[in-house]
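Deliverable D2.4 — example input (structure tokens):
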């Protein structure tokens, strides 16, 4: 067994905890039904991923494989899946209300190219074989403003080792954030990481969304509050 894989007996993996909410009141009966009846049809099976690789999660071999960490309400993931039916997408989100929203989209548009992990993305990172992904999206990660909470941030040395491992060479790690301190945190981690190259050549490259950008719910909220975003692309080298 590859020792990078998720191992329930590994003390480090066992003590992991997802910080933040995983459920709030106010889900409709329809959303509960989707979680209990429809989720099993599109749910990512960790054992399949570990044993057979990413292609085994989808019907037929896909042109590329992308993953989104913390998809929130799933707006970005569902739109990308509609635009790119030949790309297999993994979505990870522990917040069940958000998962239910994504399921509504998957069902409405009969999307066949999304595999849903309704839990911690780190479990999927651990289970993915080396060089599986063409792109990884981390859009508006929880900022964890207080310095004593910074260690909860998704950008961390430990997670970057796994992200570098699961991305293919020349694969893209894309991070968007509206929090200047998180942007600096991201840059300081990735610019000191020999596995990644920041692709920005001029300020426009990171201050403007890329062409065809699909906005997220959180980004819309940040805009309404007058906060601009940074769009950071890193290439796996
Ligand atoms: C600020 S929200 C942004 C949601 C969405 N990306 C957007 O832009 O609207 C951050 C999301 O990351 C999720 N999250 C936090 N830790 C996570 C983890 N370890 N794995 C997967 N998702 C996580 C949270 O549940 C939350 O929904």
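Example output (designed residues):
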């Amino acid at each position: 067994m590859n020792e990078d894989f998720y191992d329930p007996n590994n003390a480090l993996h066992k003590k992991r905890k997802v910080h933040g909410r995983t459920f709030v009141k106010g889900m409709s009966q329809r959303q509960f039904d989707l979680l209990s009846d429809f989720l099993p049809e599109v749910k990512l099976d960790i054992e399949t991923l570990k044993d057979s690789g990413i292609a085994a999660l989808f019907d037929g071999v896909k042109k590329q494989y992308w993953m989104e960490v913390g998809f929130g309400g799933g707006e970005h993931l569902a739109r990308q899946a509609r635009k790119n039916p030949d790309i297999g997408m993994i979505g990870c989100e522990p917040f069940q209300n958000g998962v239910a929203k994504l399921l509504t989209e998957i069902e409405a548009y009969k999307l066949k190219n999304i595999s849903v992990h309704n839990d911690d993305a780190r479990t999927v990172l651990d289970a993915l074989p080396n060089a599986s992904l063409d792109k990884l999206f981390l859009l508006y990660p929880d900022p964890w403003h207080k310095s004593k909470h910074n260690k909860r941030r998704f950008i961390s040395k430990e997670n970057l080792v796994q992200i570098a491992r699961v991305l293919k060479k020349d694969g893209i790690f894309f991070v968007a954030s509206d929090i200047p301190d998180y942007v600096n945190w991201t840059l300081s981690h990735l610019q000191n990481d020999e596995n990644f190259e920041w692709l920005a050549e001029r300020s426009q490259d990171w201050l403007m969304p890329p062409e065809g950008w699909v906005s997220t719910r959180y980004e819309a909220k940040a805009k309404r509050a007058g906060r601009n975003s940074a769009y950071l692309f890193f290439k796996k080298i």
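DSSP finds ten helices and seven strands in the chain.
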